[in-house]
């Protein structure tokens, strides 16, 4: 392999063809004499980049009419506050599903603005499953229902899209663009870029137009979706280079065959890795099979004393950032879009050899 395989949960690896194209265009984008990072965000060159990126994203996700796409700063974490600030619309209650570390952060922030109804929580089971639709206790007066379809730390993923009479809000930081998605099911989707979209510094927001423009008085302009929608995400200087690289990722996905093709690859990668774990007496995954993440695969060794040796050997073999999150322990392989299938195959082979020699 030309480069090590980077299994980081984020910022994550980028597709090699994207990096190569960015390298080719670094000093002179399309004869402009400028690097994209040097361009005015209001100049014709960057405006062309921005418009193409949005159109490619709309094509990939088949985003229906009546939805706006915003390219913002602050990552997904800022959206934890922007969502209640903009979507309460005079109400004082919102429904949240508590399924892991990121949904807990979103809940903590939302409580600063409204009464949070925990419509479901799997914390008592150490976040190893997703609640069923029948378990959700939704409020009749909720302004919206928020959930995190994929928890990167626990490796838990919803196998379904929740039903709600209130607008559905989803933090899709680690799953957006990993497979086809019915955007029309959602009132608002947000995602930090640094997993499947592009480099850190950018957040995508896809929201229904009817949800824009009802932020209460006193909300700062930069935290009002209407500000950014009216200005085409150019109210202030946006993260231009991250936007550009995201656009290259969108083009790479289209060249690959779109999200249906990407989804087939991602499903195959995940199934291979889980099969290797389940078929071993040496490795284990704590998540219920129906709720296992395609993107983030935590696993433990039968003897935790071998963890350091496993990580050192993996690094020497060209497998980077496999250490699990400190709150979970063990290992975690994040296998986002940019992780090639041969990277997963190579990791499986390394795991089998380590088990053979140490098990």
Automatic annotation (TrEMBL):
It is found in: Cytoplasm. Residues 5-347 form the Aminotransferase class V domain. The modification N6-(pyridoxal phosphate)lysine is found at residue 195. GO terms for biological process: L-serine biosynthetic process; pyridoxine biosynthetic process. Binds 1 pyridoxal phosphate per subunit. Homodimer. It catalyses: 4-(phosphooxy)-L-threonine + 2-oxoglutarate = (R)-3-hydroxy-2-oxo-4-phosphooxybutanoate + L-glutamate; O-phospho-L-serine + 2-oxoglutarate = 3-phosphooxypyruvate + L-glutamate. The lineage of its organism: Bacteria, Pseudomonadati, Pseudomonadota, Gammaproteobacteria, Chromatiales. It comes from the Bacteria. PROSITE patterns: AA_TRANSFER_CLASS_5. SUPFAM superfamilies: PLP-dependent transferases. The keyword Cytoplasm applies. This is Phosphoserine aminotransferase. It holds the Pfam family Aminotran_5. Coiled coil: none annotated. GO terms for molecular function: O-phospho-L-serine:2-oxoglutarate aminotransferase activity; pyridoxal phosphate binding. It comes from Halochromatium glycolicum. L-glutamate binds at residue 42. GO terms for cellular component: cytoplasm.
């Amino acid at each position: 392999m030309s480069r090590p395989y980077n299994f980081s949960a984020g910022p994550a690896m980028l597709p090699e063809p994207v990096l190569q194209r960015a390298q080719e265009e670094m000093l002179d984008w399309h004869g402009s004499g400028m690097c994209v990072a040097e361009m005015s965000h209001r100049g014709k060159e960057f405006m062309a980049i921005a418009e193409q990126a949005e159109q490619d994203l709309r094509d990939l996700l088949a985003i229906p009419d009546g939805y706006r796409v915003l390219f913002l700063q602050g990552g997904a974490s800022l959206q934890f506050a922007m969502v209640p600030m903009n979507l309460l619309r005079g109400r004082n209650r919102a429904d949240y599903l508590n399924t892991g570390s990121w949904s807990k952060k979103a809940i903590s922030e939302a409580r600063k603005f409204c009464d949070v109804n925990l419509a479901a929580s799997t914390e008592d089971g150490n976040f190893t499953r997703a609640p069923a639709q029948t378990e959700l206790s939704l409020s009749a007066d909720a302004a919206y229902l928020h959930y995190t379809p994929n928890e990167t730390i626990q490796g838990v993923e919803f196998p379904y899209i929740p039903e709600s009479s209130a607008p559905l809000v989803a933090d899709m930081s680690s799953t957006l663009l990993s497979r086809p998605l019915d955007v029309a099911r959602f009132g608002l989707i947000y995602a930090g870029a640094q997993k499947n979209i592009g480099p850190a510094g950018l957040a995508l927001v896809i929201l229904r137009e009817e949800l824009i423009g009802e932020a209460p008085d006193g909300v700062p302009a930069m935290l009002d979706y209407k500000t950014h929608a009216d200005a085409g995400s150019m109210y202030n200087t946006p993260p231009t280079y991250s936007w550009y690289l995201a656009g290259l990722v969108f083009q790479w996905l289209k060249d690959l065959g779109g999200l249906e093709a990407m989804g087939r690859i991602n499903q195959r990668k995940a199934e291979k890795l889980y099969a290797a774990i389940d078929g071993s007496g040496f490795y284990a995954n704590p998540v219920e099979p129906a709720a296992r993440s395609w993107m983030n695969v935590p696993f433990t060794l039968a003897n935790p004393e071998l963890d350091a040796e496993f990580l050192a050997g993996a690094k020497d073999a060209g497998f980077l950032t496999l250490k699990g999150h400190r709150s979970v322990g063990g290992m975690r392989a994040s296998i986002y879009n940019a992780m090639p299938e041969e990277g997963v195959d190579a990791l499986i082979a390394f795991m089998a050899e380590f088990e053979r020699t140490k098990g």
